[in-house]
User: Which sequence fits this backbone?
């Protein structure tokens, strides 16, 4: 299985801060990586697909970069509605695997 | 608009079999490249991918549950069924079904169904 190591596991930030979350794959996954946002009691929502493509309707303050084994999700200016848990997902190889999540707190 | 809805029991006893149904709309499981998968999330824990079935009946399973899980589709009803046998309390989780596309990963999610395993 491909292991997805996500860091940090949690972070505290303020409105307006720039936030970066990283996922590292245990082997190369091309750009077959998505990022999801999950709020308490809700299903995840896709933010980024193909490592860097912004999902339609998602604010442009979200961006993704990376290829191969290193990937980042950046929120350029944190907004109150962005406080949530974020997950990466590799879908290059079965079984698909998620990172352990990053909880973004105030 | 794509929608998915999970249905099934909320409480199951240990050793029993769980059957969950995903009913979807807004896409067809006969379209090339389309798939429906299942993911679960134990309370306060991370997401775990379980299984996936594609338009051509190709199926993939998580090795950690492979011997206990089966996935099947009924295209006439726009449904996908997940069965998990020999349940244990550690299988307590919210179970999500999701729409997937080849090379696109998970695109859309159902709202989830909480299943508790307890005697």
Assistant:
């Amino acid at each position: 299985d491909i292991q997805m190591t996500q860091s940090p596991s949690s972070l505290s930030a303020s409105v307006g801060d720039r936030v970066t979350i990283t996922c590292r794959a245990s082997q190369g996954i091309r750009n077959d990586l998505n990022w999801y946002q999950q709020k308490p009691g809700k299903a995840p929502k896709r933010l980024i697909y193909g490592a860097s493509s912004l999902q339609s309707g998602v604010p442009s303050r979200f961006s993704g970069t990376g290829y191969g084994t290193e990937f980042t999700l950046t929120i350029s200016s944190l907004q109150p509605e962005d406080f949530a848990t974020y997950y990466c997902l590799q879908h290059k190889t079965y079984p698909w695997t998620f990172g352990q999540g990053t909880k973004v707190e105030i | 608009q794509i929608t998915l809805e999970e249905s099934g029991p909320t409480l199951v006893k240990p050793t029993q079999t769980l059957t969950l149904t995903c009913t979807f709309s807004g896409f067809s499981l006969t379209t090339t490249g389309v798939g429906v998968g299942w993911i679960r999330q134990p309370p306060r824990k991370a997401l775990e991918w379980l299984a996936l079935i594609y338009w051509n009946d190709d199926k993939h399973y998580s090795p950690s549950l492979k011997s206990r899980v089966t996935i099947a589709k009924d295209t006439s009803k726009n449904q996908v069924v997940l069965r998990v046998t020999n349940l244990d309390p550690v299988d307590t989780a919210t179970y999500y079904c999701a729409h997937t596309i080849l090379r696109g990963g998970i695109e859309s999610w159902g709202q989830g169904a909480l299943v508790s395993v307890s005697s």
